[in-house]
Amino acid sequence: MEMVKSFLLTGRELDESRHYELCMLVREFLPLAEIITDDTAPADLRLCWDGEAWHADTGNGYADREMSGEASALAALGGDPFKNELKRSLYRLLARLTGMHMPWGILTGVRPTKLAWQAMTAGYTAERLIDALVQEFYLEGSKARRMTEIACREQQLLADHLPTDVSIYAGIPFCPTRCAYCSFVSYDYHRLGDLMDRYVDTLIAEIRECGRMMQGRRFKSFYMGGGTPTTLSPDAMDRVLSAVEEAFGEMSETTVEAGRPDTITSEKLRVLKRHGIGRISVNPQTMNDATLVRIGRRHSVEDILRAFALARDAGFDNINMDLIMGLPGETSADAAHTLERIMVLAPESLTVHTLAVKRSSRIREQGFVSETGPEEIRQMLRLADEAADALGMKPYYMYRQKNMAGNFENTGYAVPGKECLYNIEIMEEKQSILAMGAGAVSKCYEPEKDRLTRVPNVKNVEEYLRRIDEMLERKRRRFV
Ligand code: SF4
């Protein structure tokens, strides 16, 4: 099959949502292909749905068609069984065209375990669900088993959560440097002058007002993320955490994503401990110095070891470490080296990501194309899985992203009892999350309608400072 650089996807009955998801499916097979939306423009591959079948035409002698069939039983659980049937027939056609199969079959969404929850709530046993995921959604057996295993574990872990509970998030959108793959809102804090102080004041005002607004609700977990929360000075960290305690009281689970090791100091760790923070992250991404330089982290492996030792000395017994498989220039031997070093540290949880090259990242702008093939990524993920198992961890949440190397997934592992339930809530969307700070997205869950509405804050810090009253009003309208 010649290189397909662009494709057009058209057809009757393809509304915006169906068109979008079908394009995402094509992208899994042809990650570098541009989506053409003007049907008079030239495209290397034309995919057309005529109401009964998909037609593929490369204009270079390749033409094929694939009929739609009956909507599968599992697909019927979703909101749009016809869309899933369109995806199934298009998948078969693309698999023939490229000779490839995708680990997650036709599942293109970010939260695959949500489907497993839905199926189990509808009475599917684990065995029947695994079988249906393989037969009807074309998942690899190992992915179907993993997804079902995680969904079962999530349901046990959230057994005592009430749908009316609320989780709290506070975002600190500052970092020491911008990582090459980053797509988050993050500002280089060295260049901000007094903006950071003004940000902290406004964040504290938002926290206080939200506490007043939400009086009477039960707050389960608190997560401070970013950015890098430990870019805050010890004093600013102390003020923010005091405001959270006053506004929302004691919560059973508290996490601060310390993140970048070059921002972690004993003094900041003491502040976190004093405020009863139970879980922190020290995120290496890799334990190879050459890669750290390549991805613009500007800290060393030595810094990671130092930060981890400081955290243990400060008494933290629940430390997460984030890793990324498929970083530029890395092979499975590099991943094996990283994992060996992590095994010696023995954190309580590991979050293993597969590199996702996002549109707003620097590596994407620089035209980075991964040279790591799917089999190499698969090997890296297998090694990570074995390392987590050797550390006594179990996989407990997972998600997928767009443009992931090899179309794999991100998995959170933890030693039993050390899981971060906030991470599950974010994925399963069965509880409200009240999120404060620039770029933070609140989610209002209405259990009686099983409906979730996003309430985003503006991303730009200066805009956030200027429009804080508007952000609060948005929350008031939705949550109160
Ligand atoms: S530490 Fe995280 S948020 Fe900050 S630049 Fe790197 S990836 Fe982005």
Describe this structure in words.
This protein is an alpha/beta fold and 480 residues long. It folds into three domains: 1-100, 3-Layer(aba) Sandwich (Rossmann fold), CATH 3.40.50; 105-154; 166-436, TIM Barrel, CATH 3.20.20. 40% of the residues lie in helices and 20% in strands. The protein has helices at residues 16-29, 81-98, 112-121, 126-137, 141-157, 195-213, 234-248, 266-274, 289-294, 301-313, 332-345, 362-365, 374-390, 421-428, 461-466, 468-479; strands at residues 6-11, 34-36, 45-49, 53-57, 63-67, 166-172, 174-175, 187-188, 219-226, 253-259, 279-282, 319-325, 349-354, 394-399, 410-414, 432-436, 441-446, 451-456. The strands form four sheets. Strands 14-15-13-12-11-10-9-6-16 form a nine-stranded mixed sheet, with helices on both faces. Helix 3 crosses helix 5 (141-157), helix 7 (234-248) runs parallel beside helix 8 and helix 11 runs parallel beside helix 13 (374-390). The radius of gyration is 23 Å and the shape is globular. Iron/sulfur cluster is lined by residues 175, 178-179, 182, 184, 186, 226-228, 259-260.
